[in-house]
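LOG
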Amino acid sequence: MTRNDTCPGACEHQEDETEYYERVFDPMQTDRRARRKRKPVPRQLPKKPEEQIMEELADPIGLEGGFNTTYRPGQHEEQWLLSSLRSFYDQELITDVLAQVKGGKEASVYRCAAHPTVGSPFLASKVYRPRMFRTLRNDAVYRQGRQILTAEGRPVKTTDHRIMRAIGKKTVFGVQVMHTSWLMHEYNTLECLYHAGGAVPRPAAASENAILMSYHGDAQMAAPTLNTVRLDYGEAVLLFREVLRNVELMLQHDLIHGDLSAYNVLLWENELTIIDFPQAANSCANTEAYRILKRDIERVCDYFEGQGVRCDPSAIVDDLWSRYPGVEGGDRAADLSALEALSLE
């Protein structure tokens, strides 16, 4: 007796009754060739255009999800922005996105209306661009000596072979892990320096693609960066000392900003705030640490020399480098007396 049967995705064929029941009730039969024949062949999908990838990066939210914003982002910005900030909205940390206050090649910053329970009217959200569209070069230089972090800010175990293999092969998952780690290093650095008394934004929360922090400015404008401000001599001296205090505070925690300049220092109501720490380097583990520190100090001195402050960047770097990187134990209490003697009248 034979039976005519049609298998899903296969052509019709003839088989006897014994073969039919064996196939139906014993799918793990020992005929491997038969099993391979029934195994579906993966279909190769065409590469998606960047516009389609952007649209699929997040589920539809916005008005349908109750997250309405005063700020009207561009067509391709909307899904990425709202999906990145949605967790802050759900946690009742923000209620609205009011304006973009800074656009950048790596990330953009937005002024958000804070939830009434936060205790301040505004918060700033730094939203990273998708990894495929970031233009930061040589980020491996800054990653040197840093651990890979999870979305919770904890180090990934080197024994986690799945993650390590994905990173090594640069799979989509591996690239996302590195993207999240880059962001969480900035968040952890802010937390460390803020609680140590650094002049940095107060971190409030982090998601896989955004950091929420204190906002500096008012409803009309964000705090300007130092490069747009002209200082009188007395004010410049005080602010220069404050920048050096923060540089030394970073070194006390084995950190170097990595991109410090007048473009990454805010000034509001005579107080400065240092921003943008994704490139913060480990001063003890990064072989480029001296060069990175030297570049930071030279850029800072360039600005303050233009404001009338006498600076000797080489002397400052040598003094700092002789006392902090690689030091284990001992008293690392801040002492700016040597710096002041070297650089200030």
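LOG (cont.) second protein
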Amino acid sequence: MSKQNITIAVDAMGGDSAPEQNVRGALLAAADKKLQIILVGDAEAIKPYLSDQPDNVLIRHAPDVIGMHEPPVQAVRKKTQSSLVVAANLVKVGQADALLSAGNTGASAAAGLLVLGRASTVDRPAIATLFPTRKGFSLLLDVGANADCKPENLLEFAKMGTVYMEQMLGITAPTIGLLNIGEESSKGNFLALRAYELLQQSSLKFYGNVEGRDLPEGRTDIIISDGFTGNIALKLMEGISSAIFEEIKGIVNRSLSARLGAALLFSRFKELRAKLNPESYGGSPLLGVKGVVIIAHGSSSPHALANAVKTAAQTVENQLVQKIEHSLGL
């Protein structure tokens, strides 16, 4: 079902370069007139970047801000007039269809859980992130919402990830891998061993264990992990990707012949960089709460934030929240 005039509440004050980058990203996304964007934050700080304000971009004043290093749960509970909490409440009361924030990741997850509430069939919400592989894309979850997990949580993540891949990417019966220190079923700690048993006994398409080196290969469509390990794996991949391109840039600049060779391969390098750039894929959804919550990187550019707005709209349009709740309730 297609939903017209999808409204996205953007935490305009969250992120490393807020509100400027957030406003610019919102304006890029607002080119799609089917979207309505509510910029939530200090109105006086936002207005200078809205000299030419489209009809489908509104401002909702929120005087307070949750900093990047504040304790997430305490901040969400105490700062009820912060841009993040006000934006989450807009979703809760139905004035917005989705929340997007590039601010404090823990606070964004806490706002989803404390303000919107956990889906009735979910024990632990999880942050899911798409990343490029040699075969296309894989989905990694959890990447930060739950540092400590029970085996049952990992099975739940696998179910939510399956619904996401089916509804958002059209992949039927996606394969699932369990991030571990070895491929053998006997490897890992208690969490991995018990989760392996639960996944193997489920009706999901469980491949088995996958190691860190398997992630770029795209051995499975979905990779399941606790949030502590998943976050490290994701940031390691992002860091390696960035380091490789910086190294290539250094090599190219060493000689004329290298620059000539790079010029011949420019279009290929550009294509590869776009594929490996996390900004191309927008934000990461918080799966398992009663509303659409998209979490973007704190250093997101306007282009990345515009893509995150589009991801939020697509998630609303595909009714992902309802379908996850239905799937886990069976």
